[in-house]
Amino acid sequence: MRLHIHHRTAYHYDAPVRRVVQLLRVTPSHFAGQSVIDWRIDVDCDARLREGRDGYGNIVHMLYVDQPVERLAVTVSGKVVTEDRAGIVQGAPHELPPAIFLRSSELTRPGPAVRALADAVRGGQSLERMHHLCALLHQRIRFDVDATEADTSAEHACAEGHGVCQDFAHMFVAVARLAGIPARYVSGHLFRRDGNHSQSAAHAWAEAWIEDLGWVGFDPVHGHSPDDAYVRVAHGLDYRDAAPVAGARSGGGTEELSVEVEVNQLPAQAQSQS
């Protein structure tokens, strides 16, 4: 599938901000089943961008704005060609040993609710258990965009029984690690086949390490593994390691934030004939 992504993050400050420093994880990598055709980051003011990779191998950009501004918009756009590989991720750059993703984090630390969920998916092979977990979260947890915040933990969302895609991914990761299966949080974009191409945020799902297969993706919000409608951007132990934007500013007073995401399918390129 040929996809076009447009992701705009805009800030408005009620007083001029003196300096802004942001870490952007908004650029996807090439791997088997995902080819980045073109990609660009635009900033609507004088700014410096420095590209690198973080400890997980994600492409990152450091953004520096060194003069006073009252508005700031970062627009990311590009084209990606994807294939349906049943959620299997192969050939991703700079992979770390899977055992690192057995470590718990503040947002994935299990409590009684997560442990009860883990009890419901005991037994069977790892792949079967992870598919069962994905389906169970899809059935039991209600998707609710107003239910949680960026710092909501897997345990809290599980106990409350509702959350956003971030919470579904955290719950999946927490249960998988309890079962001794390495799991990681993934951020990216989703082409909505229902025609809802304008979205208010990026998407999130999880990946688990399955022996003989490697990393396999699971999207518990939709109850299935990622296919060619997904564009994978970043991963980590939890949301904080893979958030599209993180940073700090000096001054600026109150901040208003708006996020716009559009993911559209492009026509397939016709083959030339000799």
Write the layout of secondary structure elements.
Layout: E1 2-24, E2 34-43, E3 48-53, E4 59-65, E5 69-82, E6 88-89, H1 112-119, H2 126-140, E7 142-143, H3 154-160, E8 162-163, H4 165-178, E9 183-190, E10 198-199, E11 203-210, E12 214-218, E13 230-236, H5 239-242, E14 245-251, E15 255-266
Parallel strand pairs: 7-8
Antiparallel strand pairs: 1-4, 1-5, 1-14, 1-15, 2-5, 3-4, 6-12, 9-11, 9-13, 10-15, 11-12
Helix pairs in contact: 1-3, 1-4, 2-4, 3-4
Main β sheet profile: 8 strands, antiparallel
Helical percentage: 10-25%
- Mean pLDDT across every amino acid position: 94
From the alpha-carbon coordinates, what is the Rg to the nearest angstrom? 19 Å
* Total of domains: 1
Write the CATH fold name. C8orf32 fold
